[in-house]
Amino acid sequence: MNPAWKRHWPEYLMEAAELGLFMISACFFVVLLEHPSSPVRQAIPSAFLRRVLMGLAMGTTAISIIFSPLGRRSGAHFNPAVTMTFWRLKKVSGADALAYVLFQFAGGAAGIAVAALILRALVSHPAVHFAATLPGTAGAAAAFAAEVAISFILMSVVLAAMASTRLARFTGIFAGCLVSIFITFEAPISGMSMNPARTFASATGTLVFDSIWIYFLAPPLGMLAAVEARARLAGLQGIHCAKLYHANAHRCIFRCGYAAGARG
User: Which residue, of 39, 92, 179, 221, has the fewest CB within 10 Å?
Assistant: First the structure.
């Protein structure tokens, strides 16, 4: 067994738990807002307004996870594309990156299983569909392009915030706000994923894998493109670590430059 896996397994489990909690939250709020028998669905006929509420719910969920004890310690990636990006930045070792990705996939699938146990037939209803992210009426090409674009924007904002001593502590808030905005306005195009493990988790419930290639390829492509763009336009100085929120006392398992910066 790789030595890192022996030491860092708590963080791996935390990453699994984070995406699992995110998926449970997604299923609960989709049932609340979209299931025909839900009083909230009956009271709000506007699909746009329901997306606004869904965006607020999931943006708040993301922020809560990022700033939770779990997120403060693991770094709150809960997304293979995010982990791959920080691996590209040499902030995460190859062993840790592989373990994070594996546990993110496992945690997301476990979250869907728990949601199915709790919500039963409600979550499998066609209007809920296990909170699946699927291409909209514009088709697969539009969904792919949209996923690349929103992933690029998200990671560009995250990197810009992390590189700023004034804004770094708010990185998680910026990320959560973008999740809210994207669900509100972009979801009709691609379902708004930005996360291969998140889409795979829903697919373990729906057993529909036809378009999963979009969500496996587009988010990493968009986020890695954001790294290359920033490297050329603004440089990568100031991005010291892979934690979205580093101002805490929890241990850091990454190739962290904060301590060196403090000594300097």
Answer: 39
